[in-house]
Write a structure and sequence with these properties.
alpha+beta; 3-stranded antiparallel beta sheet; 2 helices
């Protein structure tokens, strides 16, 4: 009897240690797997960075209200084909905030004059407008670019 009891205790200790170590491995394993799955999801569906640039007109440039200019933009980083949408808001502050926004065209490059979109009453014109180009790629991901132009006519 006396010899058997320490053996029983020893077995009890061994099984307790085994359970603890299995439990720890289980947690460590779960902990290791979860991030792997999360990273996998990110790798499968990366939202692409669609970089939009406006080559013309220049940000901060000055345009006459009836001056015809070329709006020229491009995009990269997504899947062709891209859809373009130009908008113009006027009048804004010199940072391009505010104004009434109107869509002006849907080509990568187009010819436009501010007076095509906005009426400028009177002779003297001195304001700011916001040109906004939004581009959507074939998967529906979008990017955009905003520039501010001064609209001036001195009489």
């Amino acid at each position: 009897h006396h010899g058997g009891r320490p053996g029983g205790d020893r077995l009890g200790d061994v099984s307790r240690v085994a359970n603890a170590s299995v439990g720890d491995h289980g947690h460590a394993g779960t902990g290791r797997q979860r991030p792997r799955q999360r990273i996998g999801v990110l790798e499968v569906l990366p939202p692409p960075n669609i970089l939009v640039s406006i080559e013309s007109p220049l940000d901060g440039g000055t345009v006459g209200p009836e001056e015809t200019i070329t709006l020229s933009g491009s995009a990269s980083g997504g899947e062709d084909p891209y859809t373009y949408k130009w908008s113009f808001a006027y009048p804004t502050d010199n940072a391009g905030n505010g104004g009434n926004e109107s869509v002006i065209g849907s080509e990568a490059s187009l010819t436009w004059a501010p007076s095509n979109t906005v009426s400028f009453p009177g002779c003297e014109v001195n304001g700011f407008g916001r040109l906004f180009l939004e581009v959507v790629d074939s998967n529906g991901f979008s990017g955009s670019r905003t520039i501010v132009i001064a609209i001036q006519r001195i009489c």
